[in-house]
Amino acid sequence: MLKLLAAIAILAVAATSASAGDVYVVDKTRSEARFEVRYFYQRITGKMKDIHGALLLDATNPGASSVTFSIVVDSLDTGSAGLNQQLRSAYGLNAAKFAKISFRSTSISKTARLNVYHVAGELTLHGVTRRVTLPVEVVRVVQDGEGLAGAWFLVRTTLNRKDYGITWNSLLDRADLLVGDDVKLTVNLVASKTVATP
Q1: Can you give the pTM of this predicted structure?
Q2: Of 5, 72, 182, 192, whose CA is between 20 and 30 Å from 126?
Q3: Domain count of the chain?
């Protein structure tokens, strides 16, 4: 079981060239990304539910597994229509020009914690691509009569918006005092098995 968990974790966080294995698809109905950022003198939270992705698991050679996923910026929801509009606008994430946040894994390494891995990859946000290392936890593995049916992964990280060119506009006087630089991001990624590659 531990070997299975390790293979699933590597599936969610490592990427090399495609190879034979089992294909998984991100389940949009159960996956979501949540964020938190300081805004004026409070902290606001929101979520994005429109997530797409494909994962390839090679159980015999987990290092050959791969994953890519993307989050549609326009699905952002804070519970406030006005704030949603501001964050989606050109002053914020500019959803009209940069429609997606995407990640493609490139390597993986174990950590001291069971079922938690450090994943290096390319994160593209607001048109800027940077190499990041994400901690990925295997939260749950779901099995059916024929074996593995799906899995749930949890990613937690903090991004600096200025690293991705989100510096706001000079029209927003002292915007750095209004909106915090650090954005806490939590991604719940649920993937379901679809096809076994021969």
Answers
A1: 0.78
A2: 192
A3: 1
Over residues 134-181, the pLDDT tens digits come to 998 878 777 665 555 787 889 999 999 999 998 865 444 455 557 788
Token representation of residue 83: 């704030």
- Residues 190 and 34: their CA atoms lie apart, in Å, by 14
Tokens of 11: 């599936």
Spatial distance between the Cα atoms of 134 and 119, rounded to a whole number of angstroms: 5
Give 116's DSSP letter.
E
Q: Which helix (H) or strand (E) holds 73?
A: none
Could you tell me where the DSSP H helices lie in the chain? 2-13, 81-88, 175-178
Q: How do the residues of the chain divide into helix, strand and coil, expressed in percent and rounded to 5?
A: 15, 55, 30
Beta bridge partners of 28: none
Q: Which domain holds residue 80?
A: 2-196
Q: Are 142 and 151 in contact (CB under 8 A)?
A: yes
